[in-house]
Design a protein that fits this description.
Layout lengths: L8 E4 L2 E4 H18 L2 H5 L1 H10 L2 H7 L4 H7 L2 H12 L16 H12 L18 H6 L1 E6 L5 H6 L1 H4 L5 E5 L5 E3 L13 E7 L5 E8 L5 E5 L5 E4 L3 E5 L17
Antiparallel strand pairs: 1-2, 3-4, 3-10, 4-5, 6-7, 7-8, 8-9, 9-10
InterPro entries: F-box-like_dom_sf (IPR036047)
Length: 258
């Protein structure tokens, strides 16, 4: 019957059917066809978990947005736990923030990446990004200290980094704002020492400068290396954080500075 409305009968070679039944059958066939081409439907969750384990983190992250079914597989802790371990391998420091109890391994991976690349949003005319350091970073690590070549010869002659007579000098930042050194450090000399972290701003909250200063010495520019270790330096001396990835619970701030 031509021009039949919903609920009306239509003529077919095999007999009569209602239009609503035909539409439901068509939708079911389309859904079945789509499912047949979905690797998740063909291979099943167990095999797809193994496939996810062979993919790099970026590829797995893209799988998360395919569908709810894919999300449940691609965002699972069993997929991201080994990727977290791989990410942390060879790193000098493990950030504290991803260690929060109850956080998924996907969240831990993402937070670790953000912490490792923690940097400041400088004003548009600042050409080079700079890592942002906070007091927890300073105090959680031991720091090796040495003079640079531009420093006076007298100081370089006392520095084991230059004369090779002992291990590198070490410095310690304390939560009360003081800085200390090992006993019998010839350069240190037992004098009182304090530190501060300086961040200056321009309009709209953009950052103009960020540095660490010891007493009234020139400020030190802050940078972060690929292994997530820290370096602070000026034209006279340099500080490098000592690797401590084995520290229980991680290091650094629990929450990102803003």
């Amino acid at each position: 019957m031509v021009g039949a409305r919903d609920g009306e009968e239509i003529e077919e070679s095999g007999g009569r059917r209602r239009r609503g039944e035909e539409e439901r059958d068509t939708a079911a066939e389309a859904e079945a066809g789509a499912g047949a081409g979905d690797p998740m439907a063909v291979l099943g969750p167990d095999i797809m978990w193994k496939v996810m384990g062979l993919l790099d983190a970026g590829s797995v992250a893209r799988c998360i947005v395919v569908s709810q079914w894919w999300y449940e597989i691609a965002a699972a802790d069993r997929v991201w736990a080994p990727k977290c371990e791989e990410l942390r391998k060879g790193k000098a420091h493990i950030p504290r923030s991803p260690q929060v109890r109850g956080a998924s391994r996907l969240a831990a991976y993402s937070i670790s990446i953000m912490d490792g690349k923690r940097c400041l949003m400088f004003a548009f005319w600042i050409q080079q990004a700079q890592a942002r350091i906070v007091k927890e970073d300073l105090c959680d690590h031991v720091w090796e200290f040495h003079f640079r070549e531009a420093a006076p010869e007298y100081w370089r002659n006392l520095d084991p980094f230059w004369n090779g007579t002992a291990p590198p000098m070490r410095r310690y930042f304390n939560l009360d704002g003081s800085q200390t050194a090992d006993p019998h450090d010839e350069v240190w000399g037992g004098h009182e020492c304090t530190y501060c972290i300086v961040t200056s701003y321009v309009g709209d909250g953009q950052i103009r400068n960020h540095y660490v200063r010891i007493n009234r010495w020139p400020g030190m520019r802050v940078s972060r290396k690929e292994d997530w270790s820290w370096e602070m330096s000026n034209n006279l001396y340099c500080y490098n954080s000592v690797p401590d990835a084995e520290k229980d619970g991680g290091t650094g701030p629990l929450f990102f500075p803003v």
